[in-house]
Amino acid sequence: MKRRTTCYIHFCFPALFVLLLAALPALAQNKTVTGKVTDAKDNRALEAVTVIVKDSKLATQTRSDGSFSISVPANTKYLNFSAIGYETQQVQLGASLTLAIAMVQTEKSIEDVVVIGYGVTRKTDVTSAITSVKEKDFNKGAVISPMSLVQGKVPGLVIVNSNGTDPNGQSSMQLRGVSTLKGSTSPFVVIDGVPGGNLNNLSPEDVESIDVLRDGSAAAIYGTRGSNGVIIVTTKRAKSGTASFNYDSYVYTDIPKKFPAVLTAEQYRAYADVYKRTNPTFVLNDGGASTDWFKALSKTPVSQVHNFSVSSGTDKSSIRAAVSIRNLDGIAISTWRKIVNTRLSFTQKALDNKLSIQGNIATSFLNYLSSDNTIYGDAMDRNPTFPVFNTDGSYFEDPLDSKGNPYARRMQTEDGERIKHINGSVKATLDLMPNLKASGFFAFQRRDVISYYYQSRDAFLSRINGQNGNASRSTSFSYDRTFEYTLDYNKRFGKHSLSALAGYSYQDFMSEDFNASNRNFLTDAFSYNNLGAGQAFAAGTAGAGLGSGKSSSTLIAFFGRAIYNYNEKYLLTASLRREGSSKFGINHKWGLFPAVSLGWRISKESFMPEKGLFEDLKLRLGYGVTGNQEGIGAYNSLATLSTGASFLWDNTFVPTYGASRNPNPDLRWEKKTEYNLGIDFALRGGKVSGSIDIYSRETSDLLLDATAPVPSLIHQTILVNLGKMRNRGVELALNLKLIENKKFSWTNSLTFSYNDNLLQSVTYGASTSAPVDHYSLPQNMGSAFRREVGQPIGNFYGKVFKDFDVQNNKWIFYTQAEDPALDAQNKKIIGNGMPKMFAGMSNNLSYGRFDMTVFLRGTFMFDLLNIMDLVYTNRARYSNNFLQKGLDIPISSYAYSNYFIEKGDFVKLDNLTMGYTINTGKIKYLKKARVYASGQNLLTFTKFSGRDPDIQVNGLEPGLAMMNFYPRATTLTLGISLGF
Predict the structure, then answer these.
(1) Which residue, among 485, 587, 597, 475, has the nearest Cα to 528 in the 3D structure?
(2) Which of 245, 603, 665, 770 is buried deepest, with most CB atoms within 10 A?
(3) Is 433 exposed, middle or buried (0-12, 13-18, 19+ CB in 10 A)?
(4) Which sign, positive or negative, has the C-alpha torsion 149, 155, 157, 162?
(5) DSSP class of residue 27?
(6) Contacts of 659 (CB under 8 A, 6+ apart)
(7) 3-class secondary structure, 407
């Protein structure tokens, strides 16, 4: 053995020595190239620029100060420099081995970046269903909410403002259908990294981009709050360069489109003779006037928005400050909203650019007089012969009308809120080594609300109810704090690229409130500001009281993600989040939320023609598990206490406390499992690009109040996880460059989505839930909807109209004997209020300095229950008023059936904007100037006979055309945008 080893060494050592000598010339010819990479525009250092030796695996990245160093073979001729948002440069090596590289931003630089949870990535590396909408693609004109900027722009995202142009109306959002029976259907919102950001406190003018994580593989990084999708809002920040000043302002007015056609005073009087034939005792209550109550309750509003921002920056520091003043007026009398928003963002670098600190501070001061939607419903009822005022100027009131004069009620009532909101965040990022960064993030949000209400002593309802003035006031205070720590690792080695993230998140929430009310005031002078002046509280009478409350909760999470890219062809993204919440039951405090998605850039394969049809073609497949905890209150898993009955003890009635809720130690989040198959494509030349996604999502452990066994439990209901729901669909986004030359351009973008919903099961213990009828209709007509296993959400359930029995003043409906599809109650599913299909199309045209945007939006395959017709076409309401179309219905009795179900499909010309960019070349200090005019909600194409088919279709009770409403309107806007 010893001899063999010695022989081996004697043989190998000389051979190794010879090989080493042969390699020395090559090693000696290696050279080190160093340099610095900067932005060509403002000379700031660029970090994370990839430096790669052409046609090799040798690569490195620039440091935070833009410097790099790379050892290359002696025969190297070219280095390639690439970075997100910049044109790739190929540099030829010469005698000097020290390079100074200035990189030029691409025109599409911002489009190349997609914001994802806890970071950004290249659009080409995305393996999930994510839609990114940039500022240039936002909807134009008067915008109340930031989400209105992307209405119709994101496949599968349904944004509805059921109150139309009400300045105090709030938009509802729903992504890929309804997936809960109790919790919120709205996507989770993140603003500048702050989880749970409040969109109501953000000025649309401050938004730079909105990214929507549409599928489970993208949203799983947010765990128990990702089931409804995630919306990430990025606000504007300063850029390096000369200081800039921007002023944007617009003024707009709302013109009501259509009021319900009720009987005019002349028609009302003319019908009196007809009505008396069948009601001989009827006496016309003629007030002697001719009043259009819809016009009486409306005004022509003029709203103004002013937004001023200033920004400045260098490669070391930057700052941007913005102030937005919004004076919003409503169509309804005494309705307005005033907002002042401020926002300050800054960036500071230190420690030789190894430390970067970013901060945001924003405030919002809001004061509004709330809209009373019931006044227009009351206008339907109001006798058109009643005047608004008496001859002496006082309000006219009919003692037989229990609702009173709606104009007087509005003017004699103060009902509003004052809200202060402040939020701030700071993020510090430290370069630990060339490819590793550590970040710490802290955010704080605080909201203070004062709500007030006062109805004067001489108000009709106050007098007939013996209130003599009715006042209430409440205050609420809430805050949440976020602490997050992350490690980011980015490395490129040869054909491989790896981006890894590990993090910890802690967020706590607290809210408290106080309310008080009183009645019987001696004067109106104090309004709601001196509740103690009311006499009801001291007397212990009804209508006076006090209340307060407080709650808190905590959310903790550990998460990680890895994004791998091989040779720009094969992509992998995997994430895992473990999250715990104090809201959950003791047996289910923690949950695990995994996700994985794959991408294959087929266009990079050698078998694809070099100049074939596709410039880019990528196949995506994703899987993710997310949760929804929005239906769980802070203490819903616990047995809570409340005041109970009083017992006689020692000749005194002693109040007691008792359990107010059944505990559920197994209460947990709703869980959604989602699969997504997608294709991204771009045809050669970039004229056509887009994406197609097919998804299937199943939500299990649905939250619902179930019937509880009593005993052993105390209360009749208990919040439990008890069901499954499925949504399947397809989504399409298509971008077309129809015409593009020096004088004229025309681009078109189209979005389309189709969703099919199914309630799969509802079980609790060994019992299966029976069908549930819900939403009680007026006039004791029963329930509008039926929720049933094996059916979609939103089914209208009722009788089927056959004919009128004029002689007996009755509706005739089909029976089960005539129609076997009817059940034992002679009812069946008669429609569905949840649309299956949505579409949006935007056309952007420019000619010279002129530009025009035409945006159309449509909703299809759904039904509407016209409750307004259901109630107000009944001539039995003649003691008040009814719709003119009621004259064509030969009977006067209430009944709910498919007679009042209509197709809701519609297409809207939602936005038409024309602008002109002024030549500022000869104007000192003025960098840009643009004027524009915009019209919104201009035309509606539909067969629906009601006011407007664009109503609430999100949630569990979609498709109800209500009696109480806020007027739909066409909005006309004039605006100017200046840059200095």
Answers:
(1) 475
(2) 603
(3) exposed
(4) positive
(5) H
(6) 639, 640, 641, 714, 715
(7) helix
